[in-house]
């Protein structure tokens, strides 16, 4: 494969590599940097590409490995080592404690969302949440199993809309 053919294929693949870079970095500027690093490595290591193999897979592997290397470098850079006699890591989380304040707020929001939920949806949902099977809920409430499934689905949907602020917190 000539250098011109290789350049053409690599530049053509750069369009499909950008979304992958965005998925890895979750930032447009970092994705552009990763793409640029990947293309640079591909051009400088052109001689290592085995002609006849999948160039797209080769490029994606370069990008993934570059991302991992950069990430590991960033983690090492952000880890400070205390050189005192105790030799503790400054940013170690081994000795940190969690006061559960955030979960208290979340639980309160969930409780408030459940309070305003219609009783016909709340009861089957809570029973399901407590571990009852669909057919057991249907027997206790004396309603068809399809109605139980529908009410649980609608309760989840309503709770999800009321608790949308926590969608990306997990």
TrEMBL record:
Key words of the record: Sigma factor, Transcription, Transcription regulation
Span of the secretion signal? none
Asked if the record carries the keyword tRNA-binding, the reply is no
Q: In Gene Ontology terms, what is one molecular function of this protein?
A: DNA binding
Alphabetical GO biological process terms? DNA-templated transcription initiation
Q: Where is the RNA polymerase sigma-70 region domain?
A: 12-73
- Chain ranges of the RNA polymerase sigma factor 70 region 4 type domain: 109-159
Q: Which InterPro entries match?
A: RNA_pol_sigma-70-like (IPR039425), RNA_pol_sigma-70_dom (IPR014284), RNA_pol_sigma70_r2 (IPR007627), RNA_pol_sigma70_r4_t2 (IPR013249), RNA_pol_sigma_r2 (IPR013325), RNA_pol_sigma_r3/r4-like (IPR013324), WH-like_DNA-bd_sf (IPR036388)
Q: Where are the transmembrane segments?
A: none
Q: Which PANTHER family does the record cross-reference, listed alphabetically?
A: RNA POLYMERASE ECF-TYPE SIGMA FACTO (PTHR43133), RNA POLYMERASE SIGMA FACTOR RFAY-RELATED (PTHR43133:SF25)
- Which NCBIfam families does this UniProt record tie to the protein? sigma70-ECF (TIGR02937)
Task: Return the similarity comment.
Answer: Belongs to the sigma-70 factor family. ECF subfamily.
Q: What is this protein called?
A: RNA polymerase sigma-70 factor, ECF subfamily
Q: From which organism does this entry originate?
A: Siphonobacter aquaeclarae
